[in-house]
Amino acid sequence: MLAAGPLLGPDARISRAVVRTVPDAVTERLADLGNVEIAVPVLLLAMAYAGRRSRRWRPALAAGLAMALVPALVVPLKEWTARPGPLEPWAAGYFPSGHTATSTVAYLGAALLLAPYARRPWPMAVALLLAGATAVGLVLRGFHWPLDVLASWLLCLPLLLCVGAVSRSTRGSSSRTPSRRTGPS
Q1: Alpha helices in 55-178 (DSSP H)
Q2: In 17, 56, 148, 153, which residue has its Cα 20 to 30 A from 163's Cα atom?
Q3: How far apart are CA 175 and CA 87, in angstroms?
Q4: Per-residue pLDDT for the chain (185 aa), expressed as one digit of tens each?
């Protein structure tokens, strides 16, 4: 169990200062944005839309693989660290936050898939808002420490960078392929 370290003191102080400063009804709904039943269908819809629209399924499959890797990365870390929760010191397995990781990969992955079809950067703005709201809800409700959330974001960054790289490489190769409208040059 990781029970010591220079970051745990500030983490506990921040948590004590903010937990339950917003009504539970609000923070629970924000935290629920990280539930698999809510976040994953958003990603699945974006995968289907982007795949059908572009007829290139590699980016959608990369986003799906990133989501499948979330529990494979989060669960062993939770077991290894066995960190107790802010409001449940008898329970373990709070580090990193699975809800934060799920919402981050689902919403930002969906935004990466939808970005080529949006005229403005709204998919990424909405995704950042949803992932951030999830994290804030988890911390304010006392379900997670701030470092649990930060660790999840850092854990998801390489997954999302891979999804973005696959999306860009597929778009780059599609620009060399003649479309039905333009035909061969």
Answers
A1: 58-81, 98-114, 122-141, 146-174
A2: 148
A3: 53
A4: 556 678 888 999 999 999 999 999 999 999 999 999 999 999 999 999 999 999 989 999 999 999 999 999 999 999 999 998 899 888 889 999 999 999 999 999 999 999 999 989 899 999 999 999 999 999 999 999 999 999 999 999 999 999 999 998 876 554 444 444 444 54
User: Do residues 142 and 86 lie in contact, with contact meaning Cβ atoms separated by under 8 Å?
Assistant: yes
Question: What tokens were used for 102?
Answer: 């799920």
User: What angle (nearest 5°) sits at the alpha carbon of residue 128, between those of residues 81 and 99?
Assistant: 30
User: Are the C-beta atoms of residues 86 and 15 closer than 8 Å to each other?
Assistant: yes
Cβ pair 135, 115 in contact under 8 A: no
Q: How does DSSP classify residue 184?
A: -
Contact 47, 113 (CB under 8 A): yes
Residue 8, both tokens? 């745990």
The crossing angle, in degrees rounded to 10, of helices 24-32 and 122-141 is 130
Q: Which residues of 44-67 are buried (b: 16+ CB within 10 A; e: fewer)?
A: bebbeebbeebebeebbebbbebb
